Amino acid sequence: MGILAAAIMIAINPGKRSAQARDAIRKQHINSIANALVSYYTLYGHYPNELRCDTSRGSSVGFYEVGTSGHDCSSMSGNDWQAYSQSILEQLVNEGFLKRLPVDPLNDSHFYYKYEPSAQDLNPISGRYCSLVPCDRYWIGARLESVDDPSKQYRIVFRCTDDSDWLLQGTGCKEVEFPEALWPQSLSFDTSLTKF
Q1: Domain map (residue ranges) of the chain
Q2: Where are the alpha helices (H) located in 52-188, listed in sequence order?
Q3: How far apart are CA 110 and CA 100, in angstroms?
């Protein structure tokens, strides 16, 4: 009876099943990129640098994390990591750590991959960008699509990081919820202040 009920539920809601499948792909991709980042760090002693927006929708100096000036990274309109800057692409793919940088299954303004390295010695209030100094911390993440609680839609992110200075929820790879108090209406998860 339980098996029949499960089969009926899947048949009734194929959209949710598809979203769950895309989330599984996202987690696999983020883990792959994180492993490549750690391998890169082991060999070179730092992580690939960045400009402002290094995402699976492109990279650019003209876009900034939410909460700063300029356009937020969700406004990027590319369909892969190549745009203005190719720093993470050049350093992970061209040097053989990955065959290619994966992109989000939907790769739209809500669902995309975001890379955010930082430097421990920079000021965490004004920003920890490491385009001019070696990056010694990394954060790579993707928003998850299949969320059981509708009030948490667009808030649940699967991320991998070793940046313990910023985090309330620990290092490693895991699903986390971004703080409601900071971004109750935002569809973006790319500010360094919300690297949870």
Answers
A1: 23-194
A2: 87-92
A3: 22
Residues 6+ apart with CB under 8 A from 37: 47, 48, 92, 138, 140
Q: Give the tens place of pLDDT for each residue, 108-137.
A: 878 889 888 888 765 544 445 676 678 888
Residue 159 β-bridge partners:
141, 174
Distance between CA 162 and CA 164 in Å, rounded? Answer: 6
Say which residues have a Cβ less than 8 Å from residue 139's Cβ, sequence separation at least 6.
Answer: 114, 115, 116, 117, 118, 159, 160, 161, 163, 166, 195
- Among residues 97, 96, 73, 99, which one has the least CA distance to residue 84? 73
Q: What phi-psi label fits residue 103: left (phi over 0), alpha (psi between -120 and 50 degrees) or beta?
A: beta
Cβ-proximal residues to 149 (8 Å cutoff; 6+ apart), any chain: none
